[in-house]
Amino acid sequence: MDIRLLYFDGCPHRTVAEERLRSALSRVGREGEEVRHVLVETPEEAERLGFIGSPTILVDGLDPFASGGEQPALACRVFSTPEGRAGSPTVDQLVEVLS
């Protein structure tokens, strides 16, 4: 499984997303799985990587939380969660996409 955490420098939600991703990997029995961190620095990189905001989590090259209408941008990202809008998916949402 190829897991990447894309972010821009200074993203306030990167740490929470990483912690939740690690918790989710542990819950699905993949605690040793490598997570590649990818710093996105320019609009051109955002476009090339399909980066629609920070943080973006890609699983095998796909963004499981994209709805399809987002445009690439160096911006903070908002996720729909059962608790409302948040800067990171929940652990349960991550477990679902990693299972």
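(the above was protein one; protein two follows)
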Amino acid sequence: MSSTVERIWVTEEGSAPMEAVERVRAVRGGLEGDRYQRGTGYYSGFDECEVTLIEAEAIERIRDDEGIDLSDGRHRRNVVTRGIDVHELLDTRFTIGEATFEGTRPRPPCAHVEQVAGEDGVAKSLGDDRGGICARVVDGGTVAVGDGIEVGESVASDPDGLAEAIRDRLS
């Protein structure tokens, strides 16, 4: 089974409801117009996470196990994937549509997600590796619902991004 993008969610302001979009441009700092790319997210300036990914399968397990339906975007993640364990993208470059990303760290739930969702148990339900991951934009481009996810090279051998920093400085 190939891995794909099932949904894309963005919002302009922290704590505002997420809006589903069919396509979005990945740009330096995140998804164009999204709260973290704009610097208006709840954790902007404190906990930088340019783009978030979560598995559709995790959202379904939460619904089945906990009785909490987060398919309306209340999970507060940007890209909903299908057919891939997003944790396998950590310390790895991957391409979605025209854009290249690097998985940077797990995205555990927080009390804020439950507060905004307005339902008890949301934060706990996103625990146990169901909360997804953070990624940074390496090369921008359009990302759309239905795009495949191509796994590229591991970047674990350069955990501080030194090679990329040197390349950026020389270009």
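Reviewer note on protein two: Helices lie at 35-38, 56-66, 111-117, 122-125, 162-170.
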